[in-house]
Amino acid sequence: MKKDGLTLSIIFKAESANYGEGYRNLAVLKKMTRGDSKEYTYISRQALRYNMMNQLKWDNTPVEAQGSGESKVVQFAPTATIKDYPEIDLFGYMKTTAKDEANNKSGGAQTRSAVVRLSNAISLESFEGDMDYLTNMGLASRKEGVNNAIAQSEIHHSYYGYTITIDLDRVGVDGTIEITNEEKEKRVVDFLKTVEFLYRDIRGRRENLAPLFIIGGLYERKNPYFEHRLMVNNNRLNVNLIEELLSIPEIKSNTHIGLLNGIFDNSKEIEETLHSSTIHQVFMDLEKEIKEYYSAGN
């Protein structure tokens, strides 16, 4: 069987990287509560996608407002195809064609499911309710008699983990449209290069979302093998959860592991037990395998 499924699970570190709907003068982080009754912040997959597309300069797919009256929905333009726009090739689309009154033809919807799937990036350390109190005194002090109210903002500095899966056999294929294997390869490689150096601009800060730990590869099964197996406690990566999965030969033989040495307190254990290399080496190895995959005519 061909190894059509690429999956990567990644750990990075960030601070207060995705806010939800606030109220009054309080900015609230996106959070979820787990069975341990603790809150965990997260960066939504939509936010990750936004930054990836922006940094790839793929966020130029034309859009249109569809629907009647005031209830309109912004969708990709019906004329946009995967041949010209990598964004809808990798992340899918819904396009609605309007009813053709002249020829009495009804409109319809065209959909393409995502080829690249992202999970939310969920914090690996719980949110403890830390708050930042803000004023704009730098500006208010410039004019006599002007006062500023205090604003409050939730803050959380944590490790985050998320997973990427890519159906390599579906890249660049949409009905009767198919791009060249060279272009398929380029799109996947360019996407991974962006993941390697991903960042996020938020509230005047630039947060580095580049991997501190990465694990994955190309597999016959399109399974996100390492999702939910990335856990950090007391600045130590849980190696046992990963090692157990690597006891399966077909998974171990296809898995690449990268580590930024010195971040975790058990970095030596990770290197010796999981035989990790550098983060960049993992991306170089994956790029080589992707080129081999598409050069073989897949």
Describe the secondary-structure layout:
Elements: E1 5-15, E2 26-27, E3 31-33, E4 39-43, H1 45-56, E5 63-66, E6 73-76, H2 86-91, E7 93-97, E8 108-112, E9 116-118, E10 121-123, E11 131-134, H3 137-140, E12 151-154, E13 157-167, E14 173-174, E15 177-178, H4 181-196, E16 199-202, E17 205-208, E18 213-219, E19 232-233, E20 236-237, H5 239-245, H6 249-252, E21 255-259, H7 267-274, H8 279-295
Parallel strand pairs: 2-12
Antiparallel strand pairs: 1-13, 1-18, 3-4, 4-10, 5-6, 7-8, 9-13, 10-13, 11-12, 14-15, 16-17, 18-21, 19-20
Helix pairs in contact: 4-8
Report on this model:
The chain has helices at 45-56, 86-91, 137-140, 181-196, 239-245, 249-252, 267-274, 279-295, and strands at 5-15, 26-27, 31-33, 39-43, 63-66, 73-76, 93-97, 108-112, 116-118, 121-123, 131-134, 151-154, 157-167, 173-174, 177-178, 199-202, 205-208, 213-219, 232-233, 236-237, 255-259. With 298 residues, the chain is of the alpha+beta class. The protein has a domain at 5-60 and 114-126 and 157-295. The strands form 7 sheets. Strands 1, 3, 4, 9, 10, 13, 18 and 21 form an 8-stranded antiparallel beta sheet that branches. Helix 4 packs antiparallel against helix 8 (279-295). The protein is globular and about 75 Å long.
Count of DSSP-assigned helices? 8
N- and C-termini, Cα separation: 12 Å
Q: What helical percentage do the residues reach?
A: 10-25%
Spans of at least 5 consecutive residues with low confidence = none
H/E element string?
EEEEHEEHEEEEEHEEEEHEEEEEHHEHH
Mean residue pLDDT: 93
Q: What fraction strand? A: 25-35%
Radius of gyration: 22 Å
Secondary structure class reads alpha+beta
Strand count: 21
Shape: globular
The main sheet comes to: 8 strands, antiparallel
